Every structure is written in structure tokens, then in C-alpha cells.
Amino acid sequence: MAQPQKTLNEIRRVRQTKLKELRELGYIPYPYRFEVTHHSADLQGLSDDQFPEGIAVAGRVVSLRRMGKASFAHLQDQTGRQQIYIKRDVVGEAAYQELFRRVDLGDFLGVTGDVFRTKTGEITVGAKTIELLAKSLRPLPNVKEKDGTFFDAFEDKENRYRRRHLDLIANPQVKEVFIKRARIIRLLRTYLDDHGFVEVETPALQPIYGGASARPFTTHHNALDQTLYLRIADELYLKRLIIGGFEKVYEIAKNFRNEGMDRNHNPEFTALEFYQAYADYHDTLAFTEDLFRSLATDLGSTSLTFQGQQINLGPPFARLSLFELLKTHTGEDLSGVTEAKDLLQLARERQLDVPDGLNYGQLLDKIFSQLVEPHLIQPTFVVDYPKALSPLAKTHRDGPDSIVERFELYIAGMEFANAFSELNDPLDQRERLEAQAALRAAGDEEAQPVDEAFLEALECGMPPTSGVGIGVDRLVMLLTGQDSIKDVILFPALRPEQP
How far apart are the first and last CA of the chain? Predict the structure, then answer.
């Protein structure tokens, strides 16, 4: 007859009773330290004549098979699962009956002993001593594993994001994504360091936000009695460093944008920006392509599977102009269209999701994102944008005055990088930012404000410069094959949990 399932409160009461009993018996259920000599990965694959003696392992108990005078368990550490064997006659009557009998799944144990191989061939640590390192008062997700296959997995996506600690316990493969993320960020730093760039830090709290088109998060500094903004980008501060005499700088920074959330967007995200003096967007385009290819090569292959698509970073990336792509996918030449009403008519004819009240730049961006971006599967540099979308970029040297030197890198229909030949004419820059301010006054909440401190710095003279911004979270998605940005951010933003 099946036993009725205990409620969470009943389980907690039982475990708290065990905790109380252990303390009364003189055990310390939360000791200060334990000296670990080996992890699971250190032992797997050893031949019998290589087995070490007198080792110490530790981890969370994730399986228990109790018998009369001996028991087996598995400890999960950062590198994997390690079987342990506890025999009453070896660890002693008190340790076996008083301590081990009160161990539950989820507890942390420290074990010292020797390594041997069981009759089934599993490498096992035979315990000589056991020590409780932390008593778990809550049950873990009931995940079963056999021969490397997991059953009854902890799969509810939102619950996994909301309780990432349980996700990492129940789905240890998730940890590998974040270990790889750390490696990708190290590789980014190494690549830039090796090419002469200097890593810097700029303010996350800014009196004026800028460097991108986005709504900011607003806060207040009590001591200064001043409104401040969480940065939406670090561009304008990095350019000040170029003005000050640095020739190559970069920052890997947390940015914050008060916007919607989907599988490609999180309001708090990590971005890499780097700037190079005496360079233009042709230089940084080639540099960005080599950076992406080098990262993929260092991680094992330039051929990737991402969001159901086979992506190849090996061949030269395509380079196509924005208006050329719009003509291909709309059948119309929009390069001469300058009025918002004409773009709105096209959007309505194509039944695009476009709200009322958008200006020319916003409409062009909506049309491009809905009609063109989904087709940009293999790595593609989209070049030569309209000035209305690029207030910080130089006017194109060979094109009409309405076009600027800018590129964006798209892969699998998603933007990964954005770059300019940076505008360094302070008078032109002021006009552009004042035009942005006018758009903001007309209702565009993402238009950029006028940053007088930046303009003052720019008037001191900035050499020809090109800068690139790369979304690090999206880059990690690509290189780890994850379909959602939430799968590469340990603690993504979520709506409040419903009671």
C-alpha cells in the first residue's frame, strides 16, 4: 500500500526534529570547514593501481541506499557524482546509527577513506569517517538518474529561473553553461588584451544617460539630492577616455534598460564595448569578425547549432547595406523615403505590428526588424544606416548626407554587435543630440538627451575613432547553443510570483 505523500511543512518538521536530536547527541550540524583532497572528476577513469588512499571528499547527498549494516550514497560536488560506501563496522556504531541514520537527501557530507571499485565497476570511496557538513531542512526536487539519464527532472522553466539553486542541484548540466560563460568572458578579455586594449571601468550611476536609444532606470542619490540613472551604455564615458589620450579601451559592463523582456532581452544585461583611435568602421568590422571566429575556434568549432539553425562562423561574413536588404525583402527602394507617413503606409499594407505615433527612425527600425532580420541567419554585417537611427555616427564619406558609417552584426535573426565610425565633430554632434532631444519632447521616450559634459570633452578634440558594442549574453547564447537569454543569466528578471 502506497504511503501518503508528506507535505512540505511535515517534511521540514521531521528534518528539524533530526537536527535537534543531532545537537542533543553532541554533533555539530553546521561545522566551520572540511579539508577536501579530491573531487569526483579526480577519481573517475583511474585504473585500480592508481587509486589513492586516505582521501577526503565532500558534497550534497543526492542518492541514498540504506541497508542493515552498510549503505551506499552519492555525493554531488562541482565536478560530478561520487559514490560512497558506509559500513557500520568501519565508521563505528555511533556514527552509523546516530549520525548516518539521520542523514537526508540534500544534506552535505564530508567523507574520509580509501578508493575501491565495486563488483558493478563503480569507483567508490569506502568511508572511514563521516561528518555532517550542513543539514538540509527542505526537500530537493525528486530527480532520479540511471546510467547518465535523468528521470522526473526539475523542468518547469520559470521555477528553475526563480530558484536557480534548485536548478543547479537538480540539473547539474546547467552549471556547464555558466562555466563556459566564464570561459567566454576570459577569452574576450584575452583577445582584447593581446591586441593592445586596456580594460577600464566607468560609472554605472550616471547624471545623464546616453550612448544608446533606450529608456533608463531612474534613482535618487540622497546625499547629493540628485536624480541619477543606471547606465544604458558606457559609450560616452569611453569616448572621453579616447579624448584623454587612451588609444584602445574596453569595458565589460552591466547595462540597464527599462524595457520589455523576451527570449533575447533582459533589463539587466552584460555588454562589451571597445574603442580604437585612428580607426574607422571598416577596421572594427574586420576586427569583430575575427573576434567571433577566434572565440568559436577556441571553444572547439566554428560550426554551431543555434535556435534550430546551423551557423557557420568560418567563412567570410556577408556585408550588405540596410537599404539593399530592405529592397530585397520589401520589393521597394526605401532609400529615398523620408516621411514617416509613407513608412507607416507600407507597414500597414504589410500588416506589421506597428503602433501609432512612431517617428521616421522608429518606423524604419520596426520595418527592418520584422521584414528583414528573420532572414539574416548566417553571419551578416548590415552596413550604412540612416542618420536618423544613428546620432553618434559619422556621415558616410561616400554616400548621401543622410547615411552614416555604421554596421550591425546579425546571426540567426538576432543582433550581436553594433559599431560606428564615431562622430568626432562637436558641432555636428550637438545638432544631432539636440534633434534627439526634440524627438524626446515629442514623445520618443528612447531618444537620447543632450550630454553637455560629453560635448565639452568632445570640443577638446577626439581623434578618428571607431567603437563596437557586443551583447555578451547573446554571444554566450550563440556559443553555448541556448535559445533564451534567461538560460545564460544566472538570475534573470522575472515577474513577481503569483501566490
Answer: 34
